[in-house]
Amino acid sequence: QVQLVESGGGLVQAGGSLRLSCAASGSILIINTMGWYRQAPGKQRELVATMTRGGSTKYVDSVKGRFTISRDNAKNTVYLQMNSLKPEDTAVYYCNADGQYISGSVVRDFASWGQGTQVAVSS
What we know:
With about 120 residues, the chain is mainly beta. The protein is elongated, with a radius of gyration of 15 Å. It has strands spanning about 1-5, 10-15, 20-25, 30-40, 45-50, 55-60, 65-70, 75-80, 90-105, 105-115, 115-120. It is built from no helices and 11 strands. The strands form 2 sheets. Strands 2, 4, 5, 6, 9, 10 and 11 form a 7-stranded mixed beta sheet that branches. Strands 1-3-8-7 form a 4-stranded antiparallel beta sheet, with no helix packed on it. Strand 4 (about 30-40) and strand 5 (about 45-50) form a beta hairpin.
């Protein structure tokens, strides 16, 4: 299977910045889309930003102009640069990736989630 490990969360004051990283490991053949989702207490998980292998991006309106997603395909890693953070950005941030991996001699599809990293923004 494919594992995703996030890092970079923490506590920051409003207006500050954080950079999240997510590295995928396993017998990966190809990763198509990588992205970030978040879930605040009492709310549903929502898409924050995604990036395809070719570089196309999608952002939720509330983070446009403040967050930037990027990825290093050679390292199977995706990043989320978060600037001008607001208290409403407080949530657990989850990494997500989909693609194909090799199991034995078989190519299989995967869609994996990371364990989540907490981001807390104080006012």
